[in-house]
């Protein structure tokens, strides 16, 4: 900013200096020309009495002069000229200054002399005898004056430019100094220029706003970290609990068999219990791994075009046996629609939705899967006629290990991670997730993929 102000001041100073020089030269040029004409007029006035008394004889007696003196008769004939022979000179009756003198008593002109071949200033006066006395001087005198003044004026100009540069630098530093030492946090009246005070105050307010936003972001970050830590602790506690239950059962049954407290014919039953609990443990571990992979984006699968209708149909085929036990009616409706995603994750999402719809349904109920398109995009809707979810639980059913009715859920089975897998899988696939449920009526879960 200092450099820009310095350049601006220096350029303005230089422009003013050049303009002043041009104006001064013009005024001086005009002044010298006027002075030259006045000198000619004064000398004519001085010579007039002698010429009127003695004529050309008086002029012949004059000594050398730098002025050219010419005496012209009434008919324009040159009677005397101190720089050329009168006989060789043409008639001067048509000269501008001579004609003007005959008409008004005096005349003047500036032109290039035909005999001397140089710019000349002329002044003529009509004498009482009817003759015209004319004096002329070379205009080169004016040019000579300017030539003599050229070097001193250049030196003065150079000095003035140097002084202008010095003062421009000092002025620019003085102008910028209040801005450089400005503190927008403590702006007082008179500390800054009146013109930029609103800008400084606005910057101060913006700085305060940004500071508050940063502090708020830091506070939210701390809250988020605290929440993550709390969720991690809850997750660890839930995992420990969920793992401990089947492990305790397995350990207990195995210990009974080991100590010989089981009859030979009861061993297959205890082995079956151990197998069931181990399977439950395997499913739980697999679900935990899936959620971890979805959280960390560590799914090593490529995306492809998948037909939602066909995949939903495959999932329902796999659930026919558990649905048959409750005499459920499984239906798939709608149209074929393709989305781009990871087949394994989409299969897990649809399977967990449909599996929950079967598990938490009433006997003789219905599960309907619908694939459709509307103004929002491509939708996969899973609806059941089951027990439903009350309003206070709907915001939490997608949390890990969260169960609405723990005793009922334990009887049904499952790890408590199914809907959490649905939530994370939907996010990975870029689908919006919606839940609509009424206790005693059923649940509808919708996945929506927006289309361009």
TrEMBL record:
GO BP terms: cellular response to phosphate starvation
The keyword Phosphoprotein is assigned to this record: yes
Keyword terms of this UniProt record: Kinase, Membrane, Phosphoprotein, Transferase, Transmembrane, Transmembrane helix, Two-component regulatory system
Broad enzyme group: transferase
Entry GO CC: plasma membrane
Enzymatic reactions: ATP + protein L-histidine = ADP + protein N-phospho-L-histidine
GO molecular function, one term: phosphoprotein phosphatase activity
Subcellular location, record wording: Membrane
InterPro entries on file: BphY/WalK/GraS-like, HATPase_C_sf, HATPase_dom, His_kinase_dom, HisK_dim/P_dom, HisK_dim/P_sf, Sig_transdc_His_kin-like_C
Domain Histidine kinase: 238-452
Transmembrane regions listed in the UniProt entry: 9-32, 149-169
Pfam families on file: HATPase_c, HisKA
EC numbers for this chain: 2.7.13.3
Protein name per Swiss-Prot or TrEMBL: histidine kinase
Organism of this sequence: Candidatus Lachnoclostridium stercorigallinarum
UniProt lineage: Bacteria, Bacillati, Bacillota, Clostridia, Lachnospirales
């Amino acid at each position: 900013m200092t450099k820009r102000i310095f350049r601006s001041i220096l350029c303005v100073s230089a422009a003013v200096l050049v303009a002043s020089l041009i104006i001064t030269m013009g005024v001086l040029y005009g002044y010298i020309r006027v002075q030259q004409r006045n000198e000619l007029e004064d000398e004519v006035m001085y010579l007039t009495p002698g010429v009127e008394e003695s004529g050309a004889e008086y002029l012949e007696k004059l000594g050398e002069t730098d002025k050219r003196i010419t005496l012209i008769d009434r008919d324009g004939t040159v009677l005397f000229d101190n720089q050329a022979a009168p006989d060789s000179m043409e008639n001067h009756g048509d000269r501008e200054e001579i004609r003007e003198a005959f008409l008004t008593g005096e005349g003047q002109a500036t032109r290039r002399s035909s005999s001397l071949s140089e710019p000349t200033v002329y002044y003529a006066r009509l004498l009482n005898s009817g003759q015209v006395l004319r004096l002329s001087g070379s205009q080169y005198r004016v040019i000579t004056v300017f030539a003599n003044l050229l070097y001193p004026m250049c030196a003065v100009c150079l000095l003035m430019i140097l002084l202008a540069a010095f003062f421009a630098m000092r002025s620019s530093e003085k102008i910028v100094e209040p801005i450089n030492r400005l503190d927008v946090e403590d702006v007082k009246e008179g500390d800054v220029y009146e013109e930029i005070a609103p800008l400084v105050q606005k910057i101060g307010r913006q700085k305060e706003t940004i500071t508050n936003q940063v502090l708020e972001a830091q506070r939210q970050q701390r809250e988020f970290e605290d929440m993550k830590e709390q969720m991690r602790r809850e997750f660890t506690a839930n995992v420990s609990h969920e793992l401990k239950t089947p492990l305790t059962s397995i350990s207990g049954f195995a210990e009974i068999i080991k100590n010989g407290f089981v009859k030979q014919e009861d061993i297959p039953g205890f082995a079956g219990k151990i197998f069931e609990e181990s399977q439950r443990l395997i499913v739980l571990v697999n679900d935990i791994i899936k959620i971890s992979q979805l959280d960390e984006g560590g799914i090593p699968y490529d995306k492809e075009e998948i037909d939602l209708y066909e995949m939903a149909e495959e999932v329902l085929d796999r659930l026919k046996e558990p649905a048959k036990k409750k005499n459920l009616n499984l239906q798939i409706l709608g149209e074929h629609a393709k989305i781009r995603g990871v087949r394994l994750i989409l299969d897990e999402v649809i399977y967990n939705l449909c599996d929950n719809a079967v598990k938490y349904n009433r006997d003789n109920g219905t599960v309907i899967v619908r694939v459709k398109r509307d103004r929002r995009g491509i939708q996969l809707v899973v609806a059941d006629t089951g027990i439903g979810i009350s309003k206070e639980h709907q915001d939490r059913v997608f949390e890990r290990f969260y169960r609405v009715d723990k005793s009922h859920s334990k009887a049904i089975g499952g790890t408590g991670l199914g809907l959490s897998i649905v939530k994370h899988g939907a996010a990975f696939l870029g689908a919006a997730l919606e839940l609509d449920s009424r206790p005693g009526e059923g649940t509808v879960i919708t996945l929506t993929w927006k289309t361009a």
